[in-house]
Amino acid sequence: MWRALAFLALLALAAFGAVWIADRPGTVTIVWDGYQIGTSLALALVGVIVAAVVLGLLWAIVRGVIGLPEYLVRGSAERRRAKGLSALSRGMVAVGSGDPLAARRFAGDAERLLGTEPLTLLLKAQAAQISGDRDAAESAFQRMVDDPETRVLGLRGLFVEARRREDETAARAYAAEAARLAPSVTWANEALLEAQSADGDWVSALETIERRSSLGLIDKAGARRQRAVLLTAIAGEREAGEPELAAERALHAIKLAPDLVPAACIAGRLLARRGDLRKAARIVEAAWKANPHPDLAKVYLGLRPGDSVRDRLARAEVLAKLSVWDPEARLALGQAALDARDYKRAREAVKPLLAERPTVRACLMMAAIEEAEHGAASGQAREWLARAARAPRDRVWIADGIASETWAPVSPVSGRLDAFAWREPPNTLAAPAAVEPESEPAAPVLVPAGPSGPGPVPIEKSAPGPNPAVAAPTTGAPRTAGTDPVSAGMAAVALPASGSADRAVLRTG
Length: 509
Known about the structure:
Elements: H1 2-23, E1 27-32, E2 35-40, H2 41-97, H3 100-114, H4 118-131, H5 134-146, H6 151-164, H7 168-181, H8 186-198, H9 202-214, H10 220-238, H11 243-256, H12 261-273, H13 277-290, H14 294-301, H15 309-322, H16 327-339, H17 343-350, H18 360-374, H19 379-390, E3 396-399, E4 402-404, E5 421-423, E6 445-448, E7 492-495
Helix pairs in contact: 2-3, 2-4, 3-4, 4-5, 5-6, 6-7, 7-8, 8-9, 9-10, 10-11, 11-12, 12-13, 12-14, 13-14, 14-16, 15-16, 16-17, 16-18, 17-18, 18-19
């Protein structure tokens, strides 16, 4: 619209000028080389305009002739670039679709047409990766590292290749360099955090989390949780030698994550050790309400070492009421009643857990009650032991297919922070229990329960033969560490020795 108005304005101005010149006639005389030419003013103006147009056309023709070679060269370069971009696009599609032959062909065309641009190097590296040519991929990424514009991208590629050949030292070096060059790069910060956590360098890991949180690379809730896990790891390491520092770290962790079971256990033990029983009980009760756990029950029942078994039973009833009779509370109450020799109360506490499919710990609890009341040769105790061999397994700490009875701050497989979760492992069908002909009963043998102490415990991913701490994962379901305890506070389970009547082989997965 504005262009139309401007055109009309110029047209009106030209008409006004023509009328103005027509109203004021005059003559123009040109004298040159003895000749005299005279004409009207209007005709002279028309002649000047025509001459200007002709000169302009001639100048355009001359410029076109002079610039023709440059035009031809530029057109060829543009066509070459267009072909290179097309090859680059097709190469990316080939990489995404998993076609190594097409990817390498288009990568070569793109490099030939476009030269060593960042995208051509990236395509060449990815084409080499899907083709299995690791040396070519690393060479392409190294060329990217040499270019300041693509240095971080090249470091990421070298980091991935180092991880694939299991060279953790080189991978950490690449991640550290990328984090130094670009502090906001997410993958480098995560890799650096994993490396620091795997080394047990909790202080450096805390600094990394603070930097990630300040840069907005992680949400505030996630940062608080990770800080709490690291503080708990520090408290677990310092609990024996530096109890005051450990208590400080554990209490700080509880403020950040009140439902973190290991932090509450450590804080409860340390506070009870220095006589602050009320605060210890309050911390454990708060964690118990959020996440009933056998370790919390063990700490809570043992806050005052001199308490009688009746006092411990009363504390177990408090836990049951706080958790609205959670299964963990029933098992804790049953164990406390068993210790107090109140067998009727122990059965009443565990009975609701036996309605449908009792778990291994519930069956072992009933076996322990029957054995304590009626003796080791009790038929009902043997029956519950046999049922335990086929019962579903109880919840354990699981991370990346590894099951453990003790919590750890990082996964032993991936090095991921806060990977362990308290949940039920996948249950598989166990082999039939081996039953031997009845023979003379032998004295019972006490089999210690699995470890239930606080703090991080090193976990081995795989090892030949059985491992008393943690077993390696198997296809279909993870294997739990050690033996499933009847409860967090149960010290031993009585099992018949070899040669006893109706011996049941207990299989826990």
